[in-house]
Amino acid sequence: MLKPLFNAALLCSAFLSASALAEVHITDAALRAIPPGAPNTAAFMTLHNDGDQAQVLVEVKVSQLAVKSVELHESSIQDGTMQMRQLQALEIPAKGEVTLQPGGLHVMLIGLQEALSQPQYEFTLVWASGDQQSVLVPVKEINKAEHSHSH
């Protein structure tokens, strides 16, 4: 008697978890093309949350690329100088969106150990709920003047 109830509860929790994740979709993803040997690059995208609850992005992984670290960053201008700081999490508000773009929020890939040789890379977004979401991010030319790094 308990086994069917346990299985039903397990199935329901998996469904609820998957349905919450399904409420976030990604558009306009791009990984900045860089010359071979450049140590860092950035990825950009818009995260749309169609759900009734905020979703919190806590980590981004890139498994197909040798890189020292992948971090969420925020750029801002302070006293006329572009500053960058690492974020521990990024909240996507309920029924809202957050745009990662040059000169603002972005995913920073630090310490590239190989050239960007593929036309796209699979990124895994890790949410506070523990859910993981994959997104293919194409490599694109992005105006360097829009986003300068001061690491």
List keywords for this structure.
1 helix; mainly beta; globular; 151 residues; ten-stranded mixed sheet; 52% strand; disordered N terminus
How would you characterize the overall build of this protein?
The chain has 151 residues and is mainly β. The protein is built from 1 helix and 10 strands; from the N terminus they run H-E-E-E-E-E-E-E-E-E-E. Strands 1, 2, 3, 4, 5, 6, 7, 8, 9 and 10 form a 10-stranded mixed sheet that branches. It starts with a helix and ends in an 11-residue tail after the last strand.
Q: What is the molecular shape? A: globular
Alpha-beta classification: mainly beta
Per DSSP E runs of 2 or more residues, the count of β-strands stands at 10
Beta-strand residue percentage:
over 45%
Distance between the termini: 60 Å
Which radius of gyration do the C-alpha atoms yield?
Answer: 18 Å
Low-confidence parts lasting 5 or more residues at pLDDT below 50? 1-19, 145-151
What's the overall average pLDDT, rounded? 84
Helix content range: 10-25%
| Major sheet characteristics | 10 strands, mixed
Signal peptide: 1-22
Protein name: Copper chaperone PCu(A)C
InterPro entries: LpqE-like (IPR007410), Lxx211020-like (IPR058248), PCuAC_sf (IPR036182)
Keywords: Signal
